[in-house]
Design brief:
- By secondary structure, the protein is mainly alpha-helical.
- Helices cover 76% and strands 0% of the residues.
- The longest helix has 43 residues.
- It starts with a helix and ends with a helix.
């Protein structure tokens, strides 16, 4: 996946530059340093190696793959490298518009984190095939939410973005609930027995679950900050677009619109 993503991105940059268009170096650096490099560290490092044995490694891996990696990849603006026709069709699709708002992101992320409170998390963790496939599925799910949110800045109205902003604050509370429940619960929620202790510092089953709850809570709350910043940027862009629309009106058109508004017309 790393190789395919890197080649596809470099091919896109080359195609853009061949058209005579500039592509900022900071975007390429963001894509590789903030996106692909953390993904490699997560999947090939400690978290990826011990994800199937340690609950806290598994939960930390999933949380970072759905939050940190998509945000880093989105910094490289990969959608801007796609052909304009493909990009317009993608952004105009109903699926993209659904995933491109904070309301859906709140529900999806809450649902993913709630899985850690059920035996489903244990099944996903101990099944080698499923556990490995999560390294591809989870980042793609995160990208399906982050990339449209960045690209659809001027599509939604200011009121809609304001609602998204309020929901993002609600998400700050919702995301903390699964982590808190895992931390405060004194019974093993995934119903998976202790794994053999590979080293002396290997935590007990219950302590492992508590550490997993701590990591989910911390990562979820920390990752919500960039989402709030992104929504604020979208709100500012939408406000500028609406203000420009008013500035382009003639005095007569503005007076007619004002009278229609006072009469309650739409």
């Amino acid at each position: 996946m790393l190789f395919v993503a890197a080649i596809a991105y470099l091919f896109g940059v080359r195609r853009v530059r061949r058209r005579g268009e500039a592509w900022p170096l900071r975007r390429s650096i963001g894509f590789f340093v903030l996106g692909l490099l953390p993904y490699a560290v997560i999947e090939l490092g400690f978290l990826g190696v011990y994800s199937g044995q340690l609950r806290w490694a598994f939960s930390t891996r999933i949380a970072l793959l759905i939050f940190a990696v998509p945000a880093g990849i989105a910094a490289g603006r990969p959608l801007d490298l796609a052909p304009s026709r493909v990009r317009e069709r993608l952004l105009a699709s109903r699926v993209t518009r659904v995933f491109g708002n904070a309301m859906v992101a709140t529900v999806v992320i809450a649902a993913v984190f709630c899985l850690f409170l059920t035996p489903v998390a244990g099944i996903l963790r101990v099944n080698a095939v499923v556990e490995a496939s999560l390294g591809v599925v989870v980042p793609l799910l995160g990208l399906a939410m982050v990339l449209p949110m960045m690209a659809l800045g001027a599509v939604h109205t200011g009121t809609f973005i304001a609602i998204e902003f309020l929901l993002a604050f609600v998400e700050l509370l919702i995301d903390s609930v699964p982590g808190l429940l895992m931390r405060l619960n004194d019974s093993v929620l995934d119903l998976i027995p202790d794994a053999a202790q590979a080293v002396s510092w290997w935590p007990s089953t219950l302590h492992d679950q508590h550490l997993a709850g701590d990591m989910i809570w911390f990562i979820a709350e920390f990752a919500d900050v960039p989402i709030l910043v992104l929504l604020m940027i979208r709100w500012m862009r939408s406000d500028r677009v609406e203000a420009k629309g008013f500035d382009d009106l003639s005095d007569e058109e503005y007076d007619r619109m004002t009278r229609a508004h006072l009469r309650g017309e739409r």
